Amino acid sequence: VTADGAQFWNLDGFPVRKERHTVPWRLEDAIKEPYPTFMLKEIMEQAGVITNTIGGRVDFATGEVFLERLRMTAEEARQISRVAIVACGTSVYAARVGKYILETLARIPVEVDYASEFRYRDPLVDKQTVVLAITQSGETVDTLAAMEEARRKGASLWTIVNVAGSQADRRSDGVIHMHAGPEIAVASTKAFAASLVDLYLLGLYLGHLRGAISPRRGAELAHDLARLPFLAGEVLARDADCEELADRFLKVIQLRERRDDLPGELRRADCLYLARGINYPIALEGALKLKEISYIHAEGYPAGEMKHGPIALIDRDMPVVAIAVQDGVYNKMGNQIEQVKARNGRVFAIATEGDDTIGTQADHVVYIPQIAPLLAPVLTVLPLQLVAYHVAVKLGRNVDQPRNLAKSVTVE
User: Fold this and answer.
1) CA distance linking residue 144 with residue 86, whole number of Å
2) CA-based end-to-end distance of the chain
3) Three-class SS of residue 385?
4) Which of 46, 76, 178, 196 has the fewest CB atoms within 10 Å of its CB?
């Protein structure tokens, strides 16, 4: 490396030609001001991130999608027998949302694996399988190892990744870049949103190629996507509502900690996140965010499974966060909220604007705009990120660098 540039050789002394990659990041992306933390800055950037992720990739008149490093013929797309998505941490929950999206739009069977477990079960993949890795950094060791196992078994390798030129980027047959810009806070927020949008784009792309989406339906789906940045901005503008929810949430937790009728070991803070369908992975992600940055124990659970165990936890000092937007399982979620309230549980809901019923059931509600069901997770996760952030700040936590965590896990 010299002032004039860099040259490369391999270990045998032969020169190596390197491909140039332009990283479209700006210096100001790495400066947190005027925000007090990088995490809050990155949460508030998400409307712009969604715009950048969509930009130049969609013909909104036809719904056709252009993914510059994922070129396939219709015949190749029809030969895909299934997609196996591998990821770690927050990216696993994006993958679980992606399963709903890809199966709905492209009509391809999808399975989701923790990358850290994938290679240890001798996975059944072959040349008709696409193994899709989702990774912000492109350097997560378990994800890279899962990709190598897939390669060894002959599968096609695709990656949704934020860092151009990373190992995951270089090793893949097809790549979809997130266009989220640098994410500096350890707890991922804007990369999660970008991953969800990329999965939606991938669903549209494969759905068109496989003939699963008509041109008319494709245009409708693209129209839904065009509105998404504006709607995300609307949700982020309701930060004050999320902070108020965080205040009420903390009061419930503190009441439990002060109860004299409980043994000391049962006074610890706990929280339950409930959802169904495509928003169930968002309940998991919301619980993870709270754990990561506030150190409060939280568990995401499919609401339909409440009576199979978790309902035993409910009492007057157990906060329950319910995602109850107006979709195909809305009435089912309403029933679950009633079950919690009947046992004196405290319910904090994420609901759809204009829904007066939830307002009478829950103790506090944060509303999101009407949105197509397949894109709802992009909006429902935003209040959960903000609530976790405000709870952690009020507890005096270091939200940008939580204890025991690293931004990218590069060793097993």
Assistant:
1) 10
2) 31
3) helix
4) 76
Burial class (CB in 10 A: 0-12, 13-18, 19+), 343: middle
In three-state secondary structure terms, 320 is: strand
DSSP string, 125-191: --TTEEEEEEESSS--HHHHHHHHHHHHTT-EEEEEESSTTSHHHHH-SEEEE-------SSS-SHH
pLDDT digits (tens, 9 = 90+) for 45-81: 999 999 999 999 999 888 889 998 998 899 999 999 9
The residues, any chain, with a CB within 8 Å of residue 194's CB and separated by 6 or more, are: 49, 50, 53, 162, 178, 179, 180
- Percentage above 70 pLDDT, the chain: 94
140-149 pLDDT tens trace: 999 999 999 9
Cα gap 111→61, rounded to integer Å: 32
| Cα 33 to Cα 52: distance, rounded to the nearest angstrom | 21
Cβ neighbour number for residue 41 with a 10 Å cutoff: 20
Q: CA-CA distances (angstroms) from residue 244 to 256, 271, 358, 363, 364?
A: 19, 17, 17, 12, 9
Q: How many CB atoms lie within 10 A of CB 324?
A: 30
Q: List, in sequence order, every residue forming a beta bridge with 175; answer none if it has no partner.
A: 69, 159
SS3 2: strand
**Residue matched to tokens 């399975």:** 111
- pTM exceeding the 0.85 threshold for the entire prediction: yes
Q: What is the DSSP string of 342-378?
A: HTT-EEEEEEETT-HHHHHHSSEEEEE----GGGHHH
42 contacts 183 by C-beta, under 8 angstroms: yes
Residues in the chain: 412
Contact 271, 290 (CB under 8 A): yes
DSSP structure string for 259-289: -SSS-GGG-S-EEEEEE-GGGHHHHHHHHHH
At 5 the three-state DSSP class reads strand
Retrieve residue 64's tokens: 């056709």
